[in-house]
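Predict the holo structure. Ligand: adenosine-5'-triphosphate.
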Amino acid sequence: MDNSYKIKVQHVTKEYDLYKSQAEKLRSFFSLSNSKVPHFWSLMGISLEVKAGETLGLIGVNGSGKSTLSNIISGIIPQTTGTVEVRGDTSIIAIGAGLRGNLTGLENIRLKALMQGLTNPEIDALMDDIVSFADIGDFLYQPVKSYSSGMKSRLGFSIAVHVNPDILIIDEALSVGDDTFYQKCVDKISEFKDEGKTIVFVSHSLKQIEILCDRVAWIHYGTLKEIGATETVVKHYREFTKWFKGQSKKEKKHFQRQMKANQKAFDIDAYQQQVIEERQANDPNDQNVAAEVKKDFYGSVISEKMSWGNRFLTIAVGIVFVLACLINVSGHSLGDVLQNPGNIVHPETVLHDTNATSGVK
Ligand SMILES: Nc1ncnc2c1ncn2[C@@H]1O[C@H](COP(=O)(O)OP(=O)(O)OP(=O)(O)O)[C@@H](O)[C@H]1O
């Protein structure tokens, strides 16, 4: 087994249905076709590896798919196709993930640490360090929903680095703090690096990327544009942003519209076919390529969309439930309703024997 990587992402895509409203989502559930709902492919086939002990930076313009990818790696959201392999006895902590708004900072520390597998005595031993690193004062006793984004980031970062994960996913956590906190975080990340931990670091700050990352992946409107040495990829990305800034307002808009249009028009079947052809070209003797690629695409994915069978079953159960309620309310027996379905909307009339109730003979 190849032990050189800690994270391996293969053919990962992410599709979103762009419903205009909840009502449209509901309508599409009951309709036989959802082809009218526009789709958007946030990721269009990403394959990359993060080696054990390396810090991989993710860069790219706004909306390019960095957070989508880091959330998929963290297991926060599922991919639409592809495999995500996280190697070994590994725990991942994503800074922004898992803070519950209704719980206080203190409660969140305990919850996140418990979820990370720590025992209560272990958490008690760490509590002072986590609290002192986060440095958010009395806000610790307030619900997290009252925190500023900087405070959330401080708390999330502090918990993440103290529960000792093998892999740390840091998504834009350093962009919201002040300089002192930023330096504390950089020192902590450097400590992690020295301990040989694996880090995925998402940032718009090329300076931070240059300081912290061994390699960089440039995500560009849902595709992996380039991956390699930090210096090289950052240089190319700087050239791109310089070129983009040099465009007129109209040209910029046109470029962005074109990129988004590509993401809407992405054809997953064509992409799958392309992967099959590439593999066949590499290994012409392999007769099972199509089945292998299908397994790689869909084998480890739980579909977020309901199959027609399940949809039919859900609707049928719903109808049976409503009928059962109506029969119950109508007072008729099931046999009566089956013989005369109209009874269901005509409640049974109960005739009272007035003589019996009044006791008159
Ligand atoms: N739940 C969702 N429904 C529909 N589209 C979504 C959803 N989440 C993300 N997207 C879209 O996916 C694309 C990628 O978003 P993502 O947040 O991953 O980008 P990013 O590179 O992290 O951006 P930024 O640098 O601004 O944080 C964007 O176009 C975004 O609008």
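DSSP finds 14 helices and nine strands in the chain. Confidence is low (pLDDT under 50) at residues 356-361.
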